[in-house]
Amino acid sequence: MSETKGGSRIAIIGMGPRGLGAAEALAKRADAPRLELFDPVRPCGAGPNFSPDESPLCLLNLPVRGVRIDGGAFGAWLGGDPEDFPPRAALGRFFAERFDVLEARLRPVMHREKVARIERREDGWWLEAGDAQGPFDEVLLTQGQAESAPDPQLADWQDHAERHGLPLRPAYPGTALEEAARDWAGKVVGVRGLGLSTLDVLRLLTLGQGGRFEGDAYIRSGREPARIVPFSLDGQAPAPKPANAEVDACFEPLEAETEAFEAGLAEAVSMASEAALERVCATLEAPVARLAGVEECAVRGWLAQEREAPGSQETRGAVEALEAHVEMARGGAPDVGYALGQLWRKWQNALRQGFNPARMAPETAAALLKFDDALKRYSYGPPLRSAEELLALIAAGVVDLRAVEDPDIRLVPEGWVLDGDTAELTAEAMVDAVLPSPALGPVTDPALAGLRDAGWLHEVAEGLGAAVAADGSALARDGRPAEGLAVLGRMASGSVIAVDSVHDCFGAAADRWAEGVLARQS
């Protein structure tokens, strides 16, 4: 092991899973790093997304066997069935315990104040957190999704809700939403979004209010909303993951297919955007054709349509498509989209390894990121049971899909009028289940915004995160690194890909940062 030079001071801002992963990576390489950790949230290690206090109704979208952090460490710690999809709070407790071990070993200086400002002075980096802290040789930002200005629709809704005293709640923390929903019995509740967060919201508004599932049926408690009306731009629910390890194994790529994908991606990152997508898609044709039992030309056509207009291949209604995907998750014959999504999920590590260290044209990075994001409707799917519960709620009339696809929405003093295919409904309460984009431009977090406004951080491309080097070092517009300033995770999206997976917090990105720190100090 090495020792950081001259007791160099290292600050990590944000001590959720990604900050934990970075601190662990440094601890593996340095005997006595002089760490100072800044985060007002406790316990450290878990972060708000995996808070041990979160509702047990908010589930991981991975089974225990799929959480591969230090091999099977989480499964061994948790025990139970490896096919279970545990609460996110359980993973948070696991991370909090890992942090306790790290803290006992390193004895870092802990700061509970929020960092309000970061600035470079002649003697190093200084942080304003309660009072001035510094100088630091290294500052790492790992805050996850930073505070950002709301999009125009949400901003209008926030003003509307404030003027008329209407409930407009975020999906998380789930405990707060579950509590607020106790006043929504018998009401119509709108849910903006139809992704993984919405499935958590549905459990909080039904099971969290005393309802229950018996087999394929939902039994009302009388305390849940009369109707829950989710909606999104495409009106499609995410496809569930395979039911168990046996079904999941049917989607394993062959070794030669993985090698071809890695080689194709290595070529794609040096190409222009359109050519890069075509090169990556060419590596998908043969394996998806094999998995879906179709001709390669069918896959080629599907992928061409995906590049042109993601999701436009789906012509089935929301319920019909969901029912079909549930059957595929149970082991039924997959269609092209479902097979592609499961293959893409299994290649997420290969995708990160090929994309993250590479330097490419901003347009190419944006195109590959958009392609990956669109495929999340298959690759980041929920537990099969969550999809089955959604079908049961639809059958019981609790979930109403009349306005599911991009409805016209009018604001009235009573709430939100959702103009659906057959009739209007007025939602008296609204839940926002749409995660903000990881764009640096609209960030309002004072520390990040200050670095952006001072020129230390800039967007990879419009709508994306900060430009960083392979080790996370922030890059100026001329490509030079800002020595000692680094960003890991969601706010570097575009420089890196597939950052929403918890596995990305513990791996190559954190290792490269730690190695960069030691290289600069030596």
Description:
- With 522 residues, this protein is an alpha/beta fold.
- It is built from 17 helices and 18 strands.
- It has a 6-stranded mixed sheet with strand order 3-2-1-7-18-17, covered by helices on one side.
- The model has no long low-confidence stretch (mean pLDDT 94).
Features:
522 residues; alpha/beta; FAD/NAD(P)-binding domain; four-stranded parallel beta sheet
Counted by DSSP, the helix tally is 17
Class by helix and strand content? alpha/beta
Q: Give the class-level CATH name of the largest domain.
A: Alpha Beta
CATH superfamily of the largest domain: FAD/NAD(P)-binding domain
Helices and strands in order:
Blueprint: E1 9-13, H1 17-29, E2 34-38, H2 73-78, H3 88-106, E3 109-111, E4 117-121, E5 124-129, E6 131-136, E7 138-141, H4 152-164, E8 168-170, H5 174-180, E9 188-192, H6 196-205, E10 212-214, E11 217-219, E12 227-231, H7 245-249, H8 255-268, H9 273-292, H10 296-308, H11 318-329, H12 336-346, H13 348-355, H14 362-379, H15 384-395, E13 408-412, E14 415-419, E15 424-427, E16 429-432, H16 446-453, E17 473-475, E18 481-487, H17 508-521
Parallel strand pairs: 1-2, 1-7, 2-3, 7-18, 8-16, 9-12, 9-16
Antiparallel strand pairs: 4-5, 5-6, 10-11, 13-14, 14-15, 17-18
Helix pairs in contact: 1-3, 1-17, 5-6, 8-9, 8-13, 9-10, 9-12, 9-14, 11-15, 12-14
